[in-house]
Specification:
Elements (H helix, E strand, L loop, with lengths): L1 H9 L4 E9 L2 E10 L8 H47 L10 E8 L7 E7 L2 H6 L14 E8 L3 H19 L5 H19 L3 E9 L4 E7 L5 E4 L4 E4 L18 E4 L5 E5 L1 H4 L10 H15 L3 H16 L9 E8 L4
Length: 340
C-alpha cells in the first residue's frame, strides 16, 4: 500500500522496487530503488543485491541497539556496584569491643544490594564520637551498646535504600535514651509514611546490653526472635515480645523485655534467609534445624566467630554446591565471657 502511494506521488514513469528491513522478524523500515529508465529490468541479481543491502542495514540497526543496551547495562551495573559499596560501608566494619562479651557478625547478600540490616549503635554522644576510633585490641567499653538486626521485605536496590533509611533514623532515635519499645514506637511513626508509599515493611529486633548488670533489654517488631543458649541448663529459649512490622500501622505498640545473662550464655540474632533457605530437593532449612546446629555450635566452640563459621558452613552444606540462596542471610553471635 505504501509502495503504491509512493509510485503515485512520483509519477507513472518511475519504476519502484522495495524490500523490508527486518530486525528480529519485525519490519523496521524499507529499502527503495527508483528508476526512470523504461528498459530497466528488475532481475534476480538486482533483487538479491537489494536484499543484501536490506540485510546489512538490519545488522547495523541491531548492532546499534545492542550497543546502546550494553552501555545502559554497564551504567546499571556500575550504579549497582556503587550502591553495594555504599551499603557495605554502612554495615559495621567490625564488632565493637564491649566489656564482658564477644561478638561476631556476617551479612551474606543474595544480590549485590540486600535488604538485611544489622548494627552496633552507641547509646550516647561520647560513644558516637569514639566509634570511628574503635579497633580490635582497644580496651573494651563498659557502657551500654545497642545490638540490632532487621530485614526489609523485598530485595535489590529498593530494599537497600530502605535499609539505609532505617539505619539513619534508628541511630538518631537511639541517642534520645528511650526504652527499646519506645524507640521502636518512634521509629515506626517516623518511617510509616515513606514505607506506606513504597508498599514495603521492615522487621526489626532492637536490644541494649549493659555490661555492668549483664542485662539485655529488648523489643521486637515482628522479627525472627533471637535464640538464647543458656550454658548452665544447656537449653535454648527465644527472646520475643509482641510488636507489629515497622511501617504497617502508625499507632503500633511495642513491648519491652529483659533477660539476665550469665557467663557462657550465647545469643544468636538471625534473619529469615537462614530458616527459609531451600536445598536442591526443595526442602526448607526451617527454625528447628537452626536451633539444632546452634546448640551444636555452642557446645563445640567457645568463640562466637567459630560458632558463626560453623552455622554458615552447615547452611552451605544444606543448600548444596553450585546452588545459591535466594535471600540474604545475616547472623550475629554474642557470647558472655565465662570469666566475666
Amino acid at each position: 500500500m505504501l509502495d503504491e502511494k509512493i509510485r503515485q506521488a512520483l509519477g507513472k514513469k518511475i519504476r519502484l522496487y522495495s524490500t523490508p528491513i527486518l530486525v528480529k522478524n519485525l519490519e523496521r523500515g524499507r529499502v527503495y530503488v527508483f528508476s526512470s529508465d523504461s528498459e530497466y529490468v528488475w532481475t534476480q541479481t538486482r533483487r538479491k543485491l537489494l536484499q543484501l543491502v536490506a540485510d546489512q542495514t538490519s545488522v547495523a540497526i541491531a548492532n546499534n541497539e545492542l550497543t546502546v543496551e550494553l552501555r545502559s547495562k554497564e551504567r546499571q551495573d556500575r550504579e549497582l556496584e556503587i550502591a553495594s559499596e555504599i551499603q557495605l560501608r554502612l554495615l559495621p566494619r567490625q564488632c565493637p569491643m564491649i566489656e564482658g562479651i564477644e561478638l561476631a557478625a556476617r551479612c551474606q547478600t543474595a544480590n549485590r544490594v540486600g535488604g538485611d540490616y544489622y548494627d552496633f549503635i552507641p547509646t550516647n554522644y561520647d560513644q558516637l564520637r569514639q566509634e570511628q576510633e574503635i579497633k580490635r585490641g582497644d580496651p573494651a567499653t563498659s557502657v551500654p551498646w545497642s545490638i540490632v538486626i532487621g530485614d526489609v521485605m523485598g530485595k535489590g536496590v529498593p530494599a537497600g535504600l530502605i535499609m539505609t533509611m532505617t539505619r539513619g533514623m534508628l541511630r538518631a532515635e537511639v541517642l534520645n535514651g528511650h526504652s527499646p519499645a519506645r524507640i521502636l514506637q518512634h521509629l515506626n511513626r517516623v518511617m510509616y509514611v515513606d514505607l506506606d508509599n513504597s508498599h514495603r515493611f521492615v522487621t526489626l529486633f532492637y536490644s541494649e546490653y549493659d555490661p555492668k548488670t549483664k542485662i539485655l533489654s529488648y523489643s521486637n517488631a515482628a522479627h525472627n526472635p533471637p535464640l538464647l543458649w543458656q550454658k548452665a541448663s544447656q537449653t535454648i529459649e527465644k527472646l520475643d515480645t509482641d510488636g507489629m512490622l515497622i511501617g504497617l500501622d502508625p499507632d503500633s505498640q511495642y513491648e519491652d523485655g529483659q533477660t539476665q545473662l550469665a557467663p557462657g550464655d550465647t545469643i544468636l540474632y538471625y534473619t529469615d534467609g537462614f530458616t527459609d533457605a531451600v536445598n536442591q530437593k526443595g526442602h526448607r532449612f526451617d527454625e528447628e534445624n537452626l536451633i539444632k546446629i546452634f546448640e551444636e555450635g555452642c557446645q563445640r566452640y567457645d568463640s562466637p566467630q567459630d560458632i558463626l563459621d560453623y552455622l554458615f558452613k552447615q547452611i552451605k552444606a544444606f543448600i548444596g554446591s553450585g546452588h545459591n540462596n535466594s535471600d540474604d542471610m545475616t547472623l550475629i553471635v554474642m557470647r558472655v565471657n565465662s570469666n566475666s
